[in-house]
Amino acid sequence: METWMQTLREPSTRGSSTTPGSAAEPAADEGRAGGGAARVRTTARPAGACAAVLATAGALLLAPAAMAADDDKVQKNTVDPQYSVAIAAQFARPNAQMLSSALTYDPKLVPVGSHVTVSERSDSKQTRVGLRVTDLPANRAYGAHVHTGACGVRPTDAGAHYQHRKDPRTPSVDPAYANPKNEVWLDFTTNANGEGSAESRHAWSFRPGEARSVAIHERRTATGPGVAGTAGRVVACYSVPFNNSKEAGKAVAGVLSKIF
Q1: What are phi and psi of 141, to 5 degrees?
Q2: Does residue 10 have a pLDDT over 50?
Q3: 91 and which of 24, 29, 39, 104 could share a cystine (Cβ 3.0–4.6 Å)?
């Protein structure tokens, strides 16, 4: 787990990509409708008791996992005055009766049981988002972005890409808005072992409750006029509580009562 988190913070060049929102841009749909030193470890909880652990304002909150699968678990979290979250899960097929937080819509491209980890670290100066996947097809390029909606039974349920400055037109395919500085792009290419990672950095923070998932697309993201931000079909999706501590706090009492 230490290795995974180190990769998220400083992605290697092998099977990975870095997308600084305020510096260099990366190579560029369905799915475009738009310091404390303390550390915490938790393990997977039984059905109905899964939760993501959020470290925010120096306190730990248990976020509701209404759509969490049994294997969802927090890998590690550093407690400090800034907001941070790091959660991991295995991809499963959509099931309306028990909807996992990590869903694959195309098992050939994102196999059932493959792993995903997403991290966010935000302070007054920047927001860093990390993505890591394992057990995917080797040597293949994917697009990935932060979306506004939670994952659902349909690939389109995740909604539009999150944008710092919202494009007045939808779907947003204008490079002035659909670009890696205004959106969070996490494109990656898997290595020979089917592992991939990416990191995006921005000089802004998510608006609470408006960034709710990471969607993985079938190809790398385009950048040209009229197609900017498109990356083909959404093949997998992971619901993530980005900068969502207030919403999580409101539900913590109910979650704790079910767990304990």
Answers
A1: -90, 140
A2: no
A3: 104
For residue 218, pLDDT beyond 80: yes
Instruction: Give the three-class secondary structure for 97.
Output: coil
Average pLDDT over residues 5-29: 43
Residue 183 vs residues 26, 162, 231, 238, 239: alpha-carbon distances, Å: 12, 6, 14, 17, 17
The residue to which tokens 């608006």 are assigned: 207
The two three-digit tokens of residue 166, written as one number: 């919202």
- Pull the structure tokens for residue 30: 């369905």
* 177's tokens: 């808005």
Q: Which residues pair with 116 in a beta bridge?
A: 89, 133
Domains and CATH numbers, the chain: 2-259 (2.60.40.200)
- Indicate if the pLDDT at residue 155 is higher than 60: yes
What string of DSSP letters covers 192-206?
TTS-EEEEEEESS-P
Asked if residues 145 and 186 have their Cβ atoms less than 8 Å apart, the reply is yes
